[in-house]
Amino acid sequence: MASNRGDCTSKDRLKWTQHLHEQFEKAVTQLGGPDRATPKGILKLMGVEDLTIFHVKSHLQKYRMSKYIPESNSRGKVESRSIPELLPNFGSTSAAQLYEALRMQMEVQLRLNDHDEVQKRLKMKMEAQARFIEGKTDELRSKDAMITRRQQAIKTYCPPTSLPPLCEDPEVVIDTRHASKRTRIHHDFSTDQFYEFEQYYQEPQYNDATFESWQW
Hints:
The radius of gyration is 51 Å and the shape is rod-shaped. The strands form two sheets. Strands 1-2 form a two-stranded antiparallel ribbon. A two-stranded antiparallel sheet has the order 3-4. A hairpin with a 5-residue loop joins β1 and β2. By secondary structure, the chain is mainly α. The N and C termini lie far apart (about 150 Å). It contains seven helices and four strands. Among the domains are: about 1-95, Homeodomain-like (Arc Repressor Mutant, subunit A, Orthogonal Bundle); about 160-205, no CATH class. Its main location: nucleus.
């Protein structure tokens, strides 16, 4: 068991030399580039002893990353750099470490995005509450102004001191001695105005003594 573990450890710690890397690049080119090449196909084309698919897969991931990391030179052009230039300790750097670093970076970015989304929703909620409170305040002010106008209209209204004659036509017989004239005042609360005087008559209340005084 100990010998097997030692063999696996030695295989996992395989160091990619310049010659081995050139064979790797040649196999990748034959398979159509880093995007189309597969670890199984690269391993078959290289035909190197003690080289496992794990080694090829890890190296392919690093190779793809190096191709998508540009660098600007003094002329402003973008060029791709080789793996030894990007990673000085390329032999000791594992794919698991790179994956863990990328995963942590993605988690931080997701947290920042979630924080920005929460702040945005909170701002929208506060703005909606402010608009609601402003609308209610304007409504209360409008009601207070209407009540004030009604009170002023009631205070400034002066009823007439004299009323027109009950009836100017002598042919119409109305007993003015016993009929009481009443006046109705209509107030339109929707417009805060007083209008139209309606006159009506209230029949007198008779009793036996009244009829006796009318007898001839």
